[in-house]
Amino acid sequence: MGTGRAGRDARATPPGGSGTDRPTAATHGQDLQPVRHRHVDGRVARGQQNRARLVEALVDLVDAGATAPTTQQVADHAGLSVRLVFRHFRTIHGLHMAAAALQAERHRHVLFTVPARGSPALRTRALCRQRRIYFEALAPVRRVVGTAGTAEPTLAEDLDRMHRQLAETFAPEVADRGPEAAALLGALEQATGWEAWRALRDTRDHSPAAAERAIAFTALRLLD
Fold first, then answer.
1. Cα 105 to Cα 93, 99, 110, 139, 150, distances in angstroms
2. How far is it, in rounded angstroms, from Cα 182 to Cα 185?
3. What is the extent of the structural domain holding 51?
4. Are 132 and 211 in the same domain?
5. Whole-angstrom Cα distance, residue 56 to residue 78?
6. Low-confidence spans in the chain with pLDDT less than 70
7. Is 0.85 surpassed by the pTM of this model?
8. Angle between helices 92-107 and 120-147 (to 10 degrees)
């Protein structure tokens, strides 16, 4: 005697739910995979946050007047351990470089191209005012980099940006020099760059206003 459709359905369905509810190896893997990813992503995010806190701490200390903050001072200000400084940066030089890069990123918007119209004197004054603002913002951190016995940070993106700024701002004057165009641009870079600014401010003890007038004067003589 047959059991009928109801009996067959009852035998096909295990206790506790439908057959599709039974967990399999595949569904176990799908359940666990996001958990593992969240765990790894959380560690990565915390590492990035700690790294940023250390860089910010160094910048804060320098802006507050510290001339040579120690790793312990940086770690204390960030609320982290000294061990994490070396985990994220390997050396104090790495931390200094990261701080210089952060300050450059924060103030890079200052370096916009002055339109190539109007007198060379007006364009020169506008460009040199930008560089005064930019260099003065970066100077505290870059001075710490210098006093720490490490090389000056080479911020290639900003060097390229300043080169393009000079080329575009003084495009008419550069074009008029013909074969000497590249030499003129090189001289303008030297006259208005960081090294010139640092020499005027730190070696010659010029005020920011006096240093600005000096680099503008030199640039104008080159453009004559």
1. 18, 10, 10, 14, 21
2. 5
3. 35-90
4. yes
5. 8
6. 1-40, 147-155
7. no
8. 160
